[in-house]
């Protein structure tokens, strides 16, 4: 599997279908694997935060989550075939998991959201096994119980929706202890599945303007998107050999 490096962070060159195939291989292997869905904001932060970049580059699979990553890869002469976002990967794995008999565990988001997301996934994918859920507002003292619950549930795939980069650090810290074949950070995916947040229409996604749609619906995101111009400038410097 080939990869490219954007501001020092690895991104694997693959389609959504290929990512699902890789997950099948990870599950067959049975050993713990970490998947990162990388967007431009986190790639820029990682370029200034060596610990985060190390977590990303140690991951077993890194997908292109967002138009910014696709743009950067083209600019650097290593184009990627398509976006592989957290929510798209989650839904594709749910469909495959229902066929394969995989067990899922959903951890993150506000109280009640993971359960609502799980219910929708099961409605859309009859036979899908959700082995457990937990919200993302647990204290440090509650963490040992969460770890024990996940281990007891024996999921094939653990989805973690704590927001980036918190979810990446959490997975990296607990992956070996959990022994889960696949752990993947999926950002705000549970909120979308639960109906608490609305995803951009398909035509907006095709135009690679999903980020703008989010800002218009959630003006508080403006501060986060302020990193995008800095990301673009840094990529252009990299493209020029700077």
TrEMBL record:
Gene: tagA
Protein family (similarity comment): Belongs to the glycosyltransferase 26 family. TagA/TarA subfamily.
InterPro entries (UniProt xref): TagA_TarA, WecG_TagA_CpsF
Protein's name in the database: N-acetylglucosaminyldiphosphoundecaprenol N-acetyl-beta-D-mannosaminyltransferase
Function statement: Catalyzes the conversion of GlcNAc-PP-undecaprenol into ManNAc-GlcNAc-PP-undecaprenol, the first committed lipid intermediate in the de novo synthesis of teichoic acid.
Pathway annotation: Cell wall biogenesis; teichoic acid biosynthesis
GO molecular function: N-acetylglucosaminyldiphosphoundecaprenol N-acetyl-beta-D-mannosaminyltransferase activity
Root EC class: transferase
Cell division keyword on record: no
Family annotation (HAMAP family): TagA_TarA
NCBIfam families found in the cross-reference section: wecG_tagA_cpsF (TIGR00696)
Lineage of origin: Bacteria, Bacillati, Bacillota, Clostridia, Neomoorellales
Matches recorded under PANTHER family: PTHR34136, UDP-N-ACETYL-D-MANNOSAMINURONIC ACID TRANSFERASE
Keyword entries, A-Z: Cell wall biogenesis/degradation, Glycosyltransferase, Teichoic acid biosynthesis, Transferase
Pfam families: Glyco_tran_WecG (PF03808)
């Amino acid at each position: 599997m080939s990869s490219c490096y954007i501001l020092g962070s690895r991104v694997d060159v693959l389609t959504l279908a290929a990512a699902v195939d890789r997950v099948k291989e990870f599950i067959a292997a049975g050993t713990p694997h970490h998947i990162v869905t990388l967007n431009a904001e986190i790639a820029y932060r990682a370029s200034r935060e060596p610990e985060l970049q190390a977590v990303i580059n140690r991951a077993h699979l890194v997908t292109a989550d967002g138009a910014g990553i696709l743009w950067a890869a083209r600019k650097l002469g290593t184009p990627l075939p398509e976006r592989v976002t957290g929510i798209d990967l989650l839904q594709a794995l749910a469909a495959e998991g229902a066929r394969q008999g995989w067990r899922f565990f959903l951890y993150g988001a506000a109280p009640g959201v993971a359960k609502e997301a799980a219910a929708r996934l099961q409605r859309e994918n009859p036979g899908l096994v959700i082995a457990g859920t937990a919200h993302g507002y647990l204290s440090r003292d509650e963490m040992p119980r969460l770890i024990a619950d996940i281990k007891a549930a024996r999921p094939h795939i653990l989805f973690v929706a704590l927001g980036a980069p918190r979810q990446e650090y959490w997975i990296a810290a607990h992956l070996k202890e959990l022994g889960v074949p696949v752990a993947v950070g999926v950002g705000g995916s549970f909120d979308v599945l639960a109906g608490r947040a609305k995803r951009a229409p398909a035509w907006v996604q095709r135009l690679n303007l999903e980020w703008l749609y989010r800002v218009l619906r959630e003006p508080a995101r403006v501060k986060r998107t302020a990193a995008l111009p800095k990301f673009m400038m840094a990529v252009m410097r990299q493209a020029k050999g700077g």
